[in-house]
Design brief:
Elements (H helix, E strand, L loop, with lengths): L3 H20 L8 E8 L5 E8 L3 H25 L7 E6 L2 H17 L23
Parallel strand pairs: 2-3
Antiparallel strand pairs: 1-2
């Protein structure tokens, strides 16, 4: 049972990525990459982490498009996979790339002996996102 959840998470990640790129034609949806899926052990809910390219407004639009397409994606998954229960999908922004870029900026300023840039944004908290979507 221990090995089951990572396999289910990876299978769902691949399926969701595939359906987003092939089957969703919402104009609000920008360039979105599914980075990870965390499924509850009872398969009731799955948190889908996505990274996006673009401004905060474009990311918010993409997240809204994903939220509205979640039931459709869930239906497509249920038709294509043979699992007992397809979880409800909850999309959240994966801020790992933003944290990495900020850390690189800080390390660069330390290496140069200068102060960090004044326009440097606040470091996102791991696992937290202000653009999270819950159904």
């Amino acid at each position: 049972m221990v090995d089951r959840m990572p396999r289910v998470d990876e299978l769902l990640r691949e399926e969701i990525s595939s359906h987003i790129s092939r089957d969703i034609s919402d104009p609000r949806l920008g360039f979105v990459t599914v980075t990870a899926v965390e499924t509850a052990p009872d398969l009731q809910h799955a948190k889908v982490y996505v990274s996006m390219i673009g401004t905060e407004a474009q990311a918010a639009d993409s997240l809204a498009a994903l939220k509205s397409a979640a039931p459709y994606i869930r239906t497509l998954i249920s038709r294509g996979l043979r699992i007992r229960r397809v979880p409800a999908l909850h999309f959240a922004v994966d801020a790992t790339g933003l944290r990495g870029a900020r850390i690189q900026q800080l390390l660069g300023s330390i290496a140069n002996g200068s102060q960090p840039p004044a326009d440097l944004s606040e470091l996102p908290t791991p696992g937290a996102s202000n653009a999270e979507s819950h159904e």
